Give the backbone structure.
Amino acid sequence: MDFSEFLDFIQGDQSAPSGKPAPAAPPSAIIGASLSRVDGPLKTTGTAKYAADFHPKNLAYAVPVCATIASGKIGSLDASAAEKMPGVVLVLHHGNIGPLFRSGSGGRNSEARPPFEDEVISYWGQYVAVVVADTFAQAQAGAAAVKVTYVADKFNVSPKLDDAIPAIGEPGGPRVASHRGDFEAAFASAPVKVDAVYSTPVETHNPMEMHATTAVWDGKKVTLYESSQGVMNHLGVMAQVLGVPKENIEVVSLFIGSGFGGKLFPWPHSAMTAVAARKLNRPVKLMVSRKMMFSNVGHRPRTEQRMRLGATQDGKLLALGQDYRNHTSFGDEIRENCGEATPFIYSTANLRVSSALVKRNVGTPTPMRGPGAVPGLFAVESAMDELAIALKMDPVALRMGLDTQTDESTGKPFSSRHLKECLQVGSEKFGWSKYTPAVGSMRKGDLVLGWGVACASWSAGRGVSQASLSLLQNGRIRVSSGTQDIGTGTYTVVAQIVSDKTGVPLDRIDVKLGNSSYVPGPMSGGSTATASVVPSVADAAKAAIKTMLQIAAASKDSPFSGKDAATLAFSGGRIYEKGKDAATGVPFETVLKSANMASADGEGKSGGQGSDTDAKNYSMHSFGAQFVEVEWDPGIAKLRVSRVVSVIDGGRIINKKTATNQIAGAVVMGVGMGLLEETIYDPRNGHAINDNFADYVVPTSADSPEIDVHFLDIPDPQIGEYGARGIGEIGLAGIAPAITAAVYHATGVRVRALPVRVEDLLTSKVLI
Ligand code: MOS
């Protein structure tokens, strides 16, 4: 998969006709309110059920056997000892898994190769067998007893992506992802230049909840309890992989302990578990261990990016070049779209972005929060900081001067771009006027302070979605959609939209998500779920209200019997006659009772980007500016991110609390990306050697800075009725380069290879 196609895929069919922007009705006060998650009590009481929390009767447990070479073939696999062990009921492997198919049009899979398809090994940890037993301990013991020999081949897990590749323009050379003007000539003649290589390491998705599948066959039908960012996509893929009609599969993901992209597309354990359950005619559960998370379920691929910036002395950008490589697996070509934001974030006449792949013996990479843009902007924004220093210009002022209201890669205007305002608000909240640019010039007691800034961007997308809504006789409202809440607050946002449209309070609204048997909803990916699901929910509410008014007028026992439905209105959960006070209306449940009807139903269906706006004629992105303070203690070589201000232009904010939570969480993740996280493959065997939380260090609360989040909250007229673009990924996009800029400001050391290590800083000349 090419990550530049990532958003196209997430959004689905974009062929809907473009029309005039819909005049947006002013929303009620519930839109934009700071509300706790409606599913919060279920989570805090431990009653929310995640994929591994389902314990059907007679459940068996599956534990995989993982390859201990990074490249080669299985020589022999002897399961006879394991099969005789107490409690072991099945050992599945290449020899007996039976038919499993590749998926095509059904949806997006992670690895093209189905599990155990052949005996080829292309990464350490690859599943070679799975042992199923009555208890988890028996399955573990069985897995340890499977004897596998290997015929090992040479392998390559080198983090240096310096493989020989033909030049741009030659056959087999890098792909030119974006191009305008004459980059080479403009760069060559530019009076001020930056030319540097930046790299980002492999990062492993580590959501709190690990992947798991619980598969339950009931005759012909299978229910898969999954931790999935897309139940509909999972359904489509598994139907093809298992060779089962879609109507015989139900995918359930009621709660997800986040995914960060790692749970967008199915991984091999899901099919392995389903096949085991089918063969045994018994429910089977497989939990991916934290260790397996580091080899078998994707990662952010390593990138190396050569940035070349050419500028005038007064800070005009004459040329911008980004030539990058990323690693991919031998099984799949995954292109990290590092040039996602490069072509439009700053004004320049001459630009070229090129992209090349190199193969490594690693599992298949997959999107991680802000795929492409996040590592890409680390390089772009780091180079911008170096340019500001070369020009002796303020880094905020340099960026302000390069702002543009036209997307120069397409010539289209932006639907709503307020990057400058993000920088202005951020400067004010952070206190940037006190910035003194000399290295080591800012102090706080015995500590040296470093300040840095970077801009952020992420594409604004909206996909097709459906929702189904019922006003019920018990006075409650039920709304359902085949999307899911990955922890971001989708349950809550959907409830807010229903409340806005019906006037019914949140505690009378039941939101049903995370089941592929509901009408199809969007994937939770690419920061598009809110923008996609919201219009379909609003439409479903409008349709149900219309039905309700017709029932009120048509039913002979209704208080509105004989009236024309067109003379009736709905507000605050009540039906009333237009022109009269809404408060005098009759509650909808009373009218349903008098009509002897269980419910008034409505279906909503909304198109993708541009289906009800002029989106096609605009370039649509979210923007942000992130300011970071680090504290450097040169006496003991201690570095800490102490303060972050993040200002986001993400369109209208539906829920300030869940939105702030997204951006604050991204700051913490950014501290991990900037200072701590790197998956390291052992050069002796290809094993992800730091495959645990002792060695793969993620930020704790003690590492978390003081975080200040601001939203411009300017509705985007092109994204839909509410003007809400997605947020989530953008929160991460500028943090790491702002950290390395701040580190330079404190220490005088420019770190171009993430993460920053204290040993990188020992050459600092800054002394107290
Ligand atoms: Mo996001 S990388 O689409 O979960």
About this structure: The longest helix spans residues 529-554.
